[in-house]
Amino acid sequence: MVRLTSVAALAIALLAQPALADTLSGAIxxxxxxxxxxxxxxxxxxxxxxxxxxxxxxxxxxxxxxxSEQQNGLDFADNGRTSAVGLSIxxxxxxxxxxxxxxNAADARVLAARSRLRATENTVILNTVTAYADVLRYAALVxxxxxxxxxLERELQASKDRFEVGDxxxxxxxxxxxxxxxxRSNYIAAQGTLSNxxxxxxxxxxxxxxxxxxxxxxxxxxxxxxxxIDLANANNPALLAARFDEAAARYDVxxxxxxxxxxxxxxxxxxxxxxxxxxxxxxxxxxxxxxTQSAGIQLSVPIYQAGAVASRVREAQARRSQLLEVIxxxxxxxxxxxxxxxxxxxxxxxxxxxxQVAVDANALxxxxxxxxxQVGTRTVLEVLNAQQELLSTRTDxxxxxxxxxxxxxxxxxAVGVAEAAALEVPVNAYDSTLNAKRVxxxxxxxxxxxxxxxxxxxxxxxxxxxxxxxxx
Length: 472
Prior knowledge:
single chain; alpha+beta; Outer membrane efflux proteins (OEP); 4-stranded antiparallel β-sheet; 11 helices; 60% helix; elongated
């Protein structure tokens, strides 16, 4: 039996592929461009962007035009028709500071939404790396199990031949047969696991994997556990979002409190009315028209609001208290994720080192046991056990290498740098600030974005009744 070193075995099993049809960078770029979870979160950011112009709108004038046409009657007789056209302009001068406070709250929510978009991007890229590494890992396991089946098929045939000449017993043949069937079962299970990994790859990245390139070296990682925790506390997007949420809630409290302050507004109005006299004898004025104008200033001072404002203030304060606790909880989760992933990297690297030694040792042991079996000093069972141990250590090595890589990206996600820009992945970068700049000072009520095309509706019957699976 040819002896394979651990490095060569891993190069064949985990990294080497027939053709380099896709790379990890390309998979990340594809997920960045097409992943629906990431696209949905971008739409959420655009939704939240609109809260800023909505808050600013309270400081802008409003213009209303009214048109009326009224038919009058007296004692069921035509008494004429009145036509009227009116124009009114109202402008708030002072709202107790609510406009500014509400705008500050909206700005904080925009920042929270952008942070959540970063968190989603980190998650999507981590899922992409996990899917990529899993496909490589399980494809390698399929190859290892396929090789094991071939080896055991040869071993079974050799056992049968030696049994025919009386060199082995029926028990030896049965042991070889059992190991072969177990290897075939493991091979089928490995194929199923690979199929699942391929479908997860398609769900995350948008296409099935084909001839994946080897995993590149890991990006630069934090050098110490303390550095990882410090970076996570400063840059983890989920923690940043929680802090921005709390800031928005603080401004919400201020906005509601200011409802108890006076408000001042001015109004201008113009109205034109025309009366056309009717044909009945009860009409006092046959026809006429007049034009009126109005201008005024209004001061409103809340005195008593039935306790509603105080209740809403307390509600907002309680929500802020909740979000303060969310910051604490999220901070603990971030520290846990950073710590655990840093530790997992160390564990995986230690397992890799031990597994590489074990693969070399088991390969050498299998070669020796096989030769000793040929001269009658070792049993068939010992050969089968040596083959199984070599397969197990190669499997452990594959798993440890995958775990090291995924743990590395989990650590990057914890510190908030598992992102296309930070990883220098060539993508058409999405700028989450552009839409906010575009809509912040829009004042035109008719300046709308085009609607997405309507999707075809499912069969209405499917809403209330499931399909029947046809017979084969």
